[in-house]
Amino acid sequence: MEGHGTTSLPAEYLEKPKNVRLGYAVNVWGAQGATVDEAVALVTPGMSRSMTYVAGSRARLLNEFFVVEDPSDKSRSAEDILVDAIARDDRDTSAFERICDDALGRPFDLPTTEEAAPQLTKSEVEALTIKRDQDRRAARHADAAIESCSKRAMALDAELIEATDKLAVLIHQRAEQANDLESMKGGRFSGPSTRRATTELQGSIEQLDARTGRLSGQIETMRTEKDGLSQRETEALSTFTRSTSFATVLDTRLRIDTEARAKGTRSPDVKQATQRHGLSR
Fold first, then answer.
1. Tell me, what's the pLDDT at 119?
2. CB under 8 Å to 86, separation ≥6 — which residues?
3. In this structure, are residues 219 and 162 in contact, taking their beta carbons and an 8 Å threshold?
4. Residue from 208, 221, 227 nearest 167 by CA
């Protein structure tokens, strides 16, 4: 089925539960903070690591990836597109990180031991070790924050459903009593009992209005909290991705330096880059 068309399915096909399931489609930005039982993520060329993470981590029970291939490009498989998306980093980087990336290399583009990375001074090794450990701690804290936000978002979803159901009941009761009040006011009887019943009904409607207002305020507060959770989860994901990647770079850089020392090798080109960026003494 293409575009916005419709189709008809036979009743005997719909009777089987596994044949048809109700589904809702949202983009990656709209899905942030959402939690469902099952989710299907559509991966297209050009997606980034953070987008792929959000799309593939919304479900409690089952997360599936469906990859859109380019029919005109037979050289790239679905697996290639998914790997590219996971590897693509679209975050904003600081000047410090770019300098270190230039001097130390990327996780997937580091100099090999045979290319002889420069041997670091003792102070450089200490500085990189401290930075690597800081990034690892930041990644662990960010991972814990992501889990905390996800759990709270799940609880909020349940609370919002319950509160919304209660609000619907209150609104229905209020509408019914308002209709009853109008009928009583327009009736032929206006004795003491009728006036008393009218006053009581009016008081009941005012109470319903007050309860509806309080519940509406609670729902708005929960929605605001959920939006805040989505923002916190996005920030934590960015921190986790950045810290994990950079810790990997530094860890590999220190390992290469250790192996280079053992072989007594040293690369003048990389040494000059290190000195140029002020990372050597």
1. 60
2. 49, 52
3. no
4. 208
Instruction: Report whether 43 contacts 55 (CB < 8 A).
Output: yes
DSSP state of 121: P
Please determine, for residue 110, whether its predicted confidence score (pLDDT) is greater than 50: no
- pLDDT reading at 116 higher than 60: no
CA distance 76 to 82: 10
At 109 the pLDDT is 38
SS3 of residue 258 by DSSP: helix
What pLDDT band is residue 189 in, cutting at 50, 70 and 90? low
Question: What is the CATH number that goes with domain 95-276?
Answer: 1.10.287
Collapsing DSSP to helix, strand or coil, 160 comes out as helix
**pLDDT mean across residues, the chain:** 75
> Domain limits of the chain?
11-87, 95-276
Q: Tokens standing for 207?
A: 């109470």
Answer yes or no: are the C-beta atoms of 143 and 244 closer than 8 Å: no
Predicted pLDDT of residue 191: 62
